[in-house]
Amino acid sequence: xxxxxxxxxxxxxxxxxxxxxxxxxxxxxxxxxxxxxxxxxxxxxxxxxxxxxxxxxxxxxxxxxxxxxxxxxxxxxxxxxxxxxxxxxxxxxxxxxxxxxxxxxxxxxxxxxxxxxxxxxxxxxxxxxxxxxxxxxxxxxxxxxxxxxxxxxxxxxxxxxxxxxxxxxxxxxxxxxxxxxxxxxxxxxxxxxxxxxxxxxxxxxxxxxxxxxxxxxxxxxxxxxxxxxxxxxxxxxxxxxxxxxxxxxxxxxxxxxxxxxxxxxxxxxxxxxxxxxxxxxxxxxxxxxxxxxxxxxxxxxxxxxxxxxxxxxxxxxxxxxxxxxxxxxxxxxxxxxxxxxxxxxxxxxxxxxxxxxxxxxxxxxxxxxxxxxxxxxxxxxxxxxxxxxxxxxxx
Length: 395
Hints:
Helix content is 64%, strand content 0%. By secondary structure, the protein is mainly α. Helix 11 packs antiparallel against helix 12 (230-259) and helix 13 runs antiparallel to helix 16 (345-358). The model is unreliable at 372-393 (pLDDT under 50).
């Protein structure tokens, strides 16, 4: 808008620049611009740095206090588009001064606004997920707590329908963040950490919308491709497996509810279609997980094998195997294979392929696969194993 104020172009239609300048001035009065301004401040209030939150809070407090004074209100008829209850939710205008640098105080206030104003939800979430991955423990703890309490709907009496809507909204925001900050480690790694925390706590974001899981899987594939960031790859592996767990949990709960007569309006065909859909999605996720078991980094293979073994022990993949014997065999393969070995890639791939057969996975994703021949040099590919690093240092 401000750039258009300097538009003085003239063409065959006439003084087109003047049209741009008038549109820019009108646009500054719009709700869209106001929401961008408030959203920008709230995103900074959700950030991990104490100094940024303090400065953002103080600036926002001065602006809102000035705009709501009787003197200013008497001189303008313009709609300032300040959401109802906005100042009260943030504690602005009250007698007690707000310490915006204190994460324990600020984050719950910001999430209160997320409940009130849908247009401000995304900028708030984009700031909160970065705080979850902060190095300061207090910031991480309080941002994660505020976010989890909002998703779990603890500020609204745990109403089931509202909790479901919140999980869907957050899931949509997650996909938007992946798209907007693709391969940007500063945002993606904290976002992955947030998802890990949610899945480990049994919070299923997709509810009955399994398209979310497939969209999330596509995002994970983009992030893992050609990546040398071990921390990010490990987190992606855990999320994929936890995602598989969450989908199985949903399938089990849906079946139990129907058998108990809680969903009498859903017939057997609908139930069968739902279970088949979940089964298909699980196989796609498992195909990705087995692809990671063939990853070139030993640490990644070991980590994914451990997570998958625990998942099998908990029975999360029991609907994918034809017999209990096959499930136990798969567990033994995961347990007995030395997944971080560097001198026998053939055995690793054989074990991975055996798992695919036992779990009835026809195709596996090709993710930076471990080479069949043992590498004698790390010149062509980085291998973040201790032995290789020591060898490189000595050379």
